[in-house]
């Protein structure tokens, strides 16, 4: 028996529109991964609440979805704006079924050059905002009977990389936040899982690909000898948002071409 009362055996096999009429919030929706995730969830039938700080890029990202998407310009480093978001989404779209905590920033700097202010900003956007958003979204999800949260972590949450201390700590934190949310809410119809991408070609990483050292590192360390395209991450995210993952909870699915399994870099 599931928390909403149905038996698993009674359920029909999920079709291609498994998220029909569900409302999915995607943060960082104007970015590389956010756009791919939004497209994939839209293809599965979801109505979208697209969230970003960058108003112009957000409007551009939303344009392809017409009335199936609403935009919310929010600075996720601001607790008040972040906490208010789930209520605004419910008021405008009539529900909130799926929350994808995707927005992120990454500072590349050795520890001695990283200021406490920069450290805090990375943790605010990459770790505290998913906590604040989840905390504000969960009570309504419980009331609705079910809700799915997918956090975008990273292999850097499992493997330490030099010059990325705040980012690695934030991503390690979100892997643990994923587990603690599951522990507290799984019996009340909440799923919280994470995706741990390896290197993905997006605006965040574009500069990498211009550096021969990074190309060489990926060829040396990534078992598949290549980086990913955003669409290759969006499919696994959609799996964790839909009903086919209903016995998957508290886990981080690494979508990294085997890099984390090899444990080298
Ligand atoms: N690209 C990769 O190789 C890679 C690998 C592992 C994990 N990730 C994670 O994937 C997620 C998406 O990254 P991406 O590669 O698409 O990067 P991106 O830079 O293309 O997109 C990030 C988005 O987050 C938004 N954002 C940043 N700060 C914000 C704030 N304060 N409030 C609201 N929105 C804000 C940005 O405006 C941007 O649109 C991030 O969490 C990132 O850490 C990326």
TrEMBL record:
Q: Which InterPro entries match?
A: KR_dom, NAD(P)-bd_dom_sf, SDR, SDR_fam
Question: What Pfam families is this protein classified in?
Answer: adh_short_C2 (PF13561)
The UniProt entry, under Gene3D superfamilies, shows:
NAD(P)-binding Rossmann-like Domain
**GO MF:** 3-oxoacyl-[acyl-carrier-protein] reductase (NADPH) activity
Ketoreductase domain residues: 22-158
Q: Kindly indicate whether the keyword Cell membrane belongs to this entry.
A: no
Q: What keywords are assigned to this protein? A: Oxidoreductase
EC numbers: 1.1.1.100
Q: Which family does it belong to?
A: Belongs to the short-chain dehydrogenases/reductases (SDR) family.
What is the protein named?
3-oxoacyl-(Acyl-carrier-protein) reductase
